[in-house]
């Protein structure tokens, strides 16, 4: 009896110490310092349905240029003061050339450099990380991070391996279609079709509600693009055209598998992320410079991690990335107020949520990529724009974003809402 009481007391003391440490770490993370990397602006364009939606004919360079012009107009920042621009994108050809051209056409002076990053689904977040790290080491103090993708005009190309490389099982798995990895996760971790549809319904329902209440207006920056190629007419785009109101359990259950030859064939057009077009942007600087320039501070950069996983189970990346970023920042799950976890497929999303025991009431509160779509390069910044907008509505502190990454990786990041 005494041994059991002693063991219980030790366990309770350990829990108490863990809570106290977490509270100290949270307090430290929220502390405001002159050299903090901060976000002064983060917005996204509306999202268009690939091949059918409002950006189906809009090239990546036009998306980028239009977003930059709208950002400069809204924020009144002087683009000549920029020290670097980093663009996260995946599949357009010659992406650096078109990104540089887009920036110049938007009024960015030629002395401002630019680079492009491709880490597939996390490319936008990697752009933010690149700028944040450059600021932290003192290379720059003011930069832009952008995520962009036109899946209408530049769908995923089919990767090819040499015969020698493809004999390696992991190398073979690495280049398989993402739908195949969804089915492999569902099969390996016994994620039923019914469970996938349940999580998909949550996403569709929440996004439809948010759209009807005009909640996304807080994170969307309207942009002006050509109505059609070479038409000379323009259209102002400010609302997603990807959201499908009225999705129900019955309508999801009636959908046929889109990958009938793989695994258990549970993935459908209703429980997988939509294919879409769009862009998102973040302005990063130091707290000291933001205060000197009189710029509003939206959030503090808390940190970012990237991990690798088995390529065939690509979708479980957040299961390893999220604990790593919590460990890095000294936080625990209860410290996170809002989670934005990308819904590449309901199979992997369901597994990540349940394996990590993350509360759905705090996760993808206004729906996720299953409802909104997942323009690959855009998503890493889109999650931040969406999550921070929700944090501000709730007047809470900590956002954690995470996503799986094609070829077998996962990424996660922490952001701190700027409060008085």
What descriptive keywords fit this protein?
globular; 10-stranded mixed sheet; alpha+beta; 14 helices; about 425 residues
Kindly describe this structure.
There is one protein chain. This protein has 420 residues and is an alpha+beta fold. 40% of the residues lie in helices and 19% in strands. It is built from 14 helices and twelve strands. The strands form two sheets. Strands 1, 2, 3, 4, 5, 8, 9, 10, 11 and 12 form a ten-stranded mixed beta sheet that branches. A two-stranded antiparallel ribbon has the order 6-7. Helix 7 crosses helix 12 and helix 8 packs across helix 12. The protein is globular and about 55 Å long.
Question: What's the short version?
Answer:
Helices cover 40% and strands 19% of the residues. It has 420 residues and is α+β, with helices and mostly antiparallel strands.
H and E string? HEEHEHEHEHHHHEEHEHEHEHHHEE
Uncertain runs: none
User: Strand percentage, roughly?
Assistant: 15-25%
The helix count comes to: 14
Give the % helix. 40-55%
What form results from the Cα inertia axes? globular
**Radius of gyration over all CA atoms, rounded:** 21 Å
Annotation, overall tally of beta strands: 12
Question: What class, by secondary structure content?
Answer: alpha+beta
User: How many strands, what sense, and barrel or not for the largest sheet?
Assistant: 10 strands, mixed
Average pLDDT for all residues: 95
N-C termini distance: 51 Å
């Amino acid at each position: 009896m005494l041994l059991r009481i002693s063991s219980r007391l030790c366990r309770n003391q350990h829990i108490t110490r863990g809570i106290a440490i977490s509270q100290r770490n949270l307090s430290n993370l929220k502390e405001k310092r002159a050299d903090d990397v901060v976000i002064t602006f983060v917005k996204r364009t509306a999202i268009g349905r690939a091949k059918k939606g409002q950006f189906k004919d809009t090239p990546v360079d036009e998306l980028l240029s239009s977003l930059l012009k709208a950002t400069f107009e809204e924020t009144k920042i002087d683009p000549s003061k920029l020290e670097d621009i980093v663009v996260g994108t995946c599949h357009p050809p010659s992406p650096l050339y078109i990104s540089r051209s887009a920036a110049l056409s938007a009024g960015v002076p030629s002395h401002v450099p630019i680079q492009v990053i491709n880490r597939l689904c996390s490319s936008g977040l990697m752009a933010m990380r690149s700028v944040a790290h450059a600021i932290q080491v003192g290379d720059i103090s003011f930069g832009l991070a952008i995520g962009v993708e036109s899946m209408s005009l530049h769908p995923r190309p089919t990767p090819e391996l040499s015969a020698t490389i493809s004999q390696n099982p992991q190398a073979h798995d690495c280049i398989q279609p993402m739908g195949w990895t969804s089915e492999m996760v569902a099969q390996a971790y016994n994620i039923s079709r019914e469970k996938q549809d349940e999580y998909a319904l949550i996403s569709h329902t929440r996004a439809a509600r948010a759209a009807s209440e005009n909640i996304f207006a807080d994170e969307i920056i309207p942009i002006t693009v050509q109505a059609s190629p070479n038409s000379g007419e323009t259209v102002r785009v400010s609302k997603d055209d990807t959201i499908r109101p009225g999705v129900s359990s019955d309508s999801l259950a009636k959908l046929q598998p889109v990958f009938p030859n793989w695994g258990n064939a549970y993935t459908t057009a209703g429980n997988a992320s939509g294919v879409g077009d769009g862009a998102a942007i973040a302005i990063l600087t130091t707290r000291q410079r933001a205060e000197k320039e009189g710029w509003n501070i939206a959030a503090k950069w808390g940190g970012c991690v990237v991990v690798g996983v088995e390529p065939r189970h690509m979708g479980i990346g957040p299961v390893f990335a999220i604990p790593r970023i919590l460990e890095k920042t000294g936080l625990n799950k209860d410290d996170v107020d809002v989670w934005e976890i990308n819904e590449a497929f309901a199979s992997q999303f369901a597994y990540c949520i349940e394996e990590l025991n993350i509360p759905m009431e705090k996760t993808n509160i206004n729906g996720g990529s299953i409802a909104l779509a997942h323009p690959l390069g855009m998503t890493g910044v889109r999650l931040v724009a969406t999550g921070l907008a929700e944090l501000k509505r709730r007047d809470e502190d900590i956002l954690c974003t995470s996503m799986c990454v094609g070829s077998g990786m996962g990424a996660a990041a922490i952001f701190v809402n700027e409060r008085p």
